[in-house]
Amino acid sequence: MPSKKPEDTRHKGRSYEQQAESYLISKGYTILERNWQASHKEIDLIAQKDDTITFVEVKGARSSKFGHPAEKVDRRKQMNLVAAAERYISENGLHGYDFQIDLITIFKGRLEHYPNAFECAD
Question: Rounded distance, CA 120 to CA 79, Å?
């Protein structure tokens, strides 16, 4: 079986991120950043609703061949997200906000939102 081209994977990932962004906007969030980078770490979406800034990891899968997309967010990925979120908070001098990291999965065409999926610094 031929391997997937990297541009196909990136295109799929961008599609999942666009779906997540549309969902968040429909729920009253304002998108602050897309694909924000801190060296080799990336946060897919950074959004704000009221006094909460939310760092969003987006994962998707069309089938269960490799398990649920949430399973791809292992401890190492969580630590990288927290480190990137802390850097964003520091670089932007953010005070007086609540912070959380959410996970949005798109699995077999269905969007699932996991608010406050794991700990974030504040």
Answer: 9
- Residue 71, helix vs strand vs coil: helix
Position 13 scores a pLDDT of 73
pTM: 0.87
- Residue 87 structure tokens: 């850097």
Q: Which two tokens stand for residue 70?
A: 């949430």
CATH fold, domain 6-118, is Trna Endonuclease; Chain: A, domain 1 (3.40.1350)
| Count of all residues that appear for the chain in the document | 122
Distance CA 29, CA 90 (A): 22
Round to whole Å and give the CA distance between 97 and 103: 19
Residue spans per domain, the chain: 6-118
Measure the CA–CA gap between 65 and 50, rounded to whole angstroms: 38
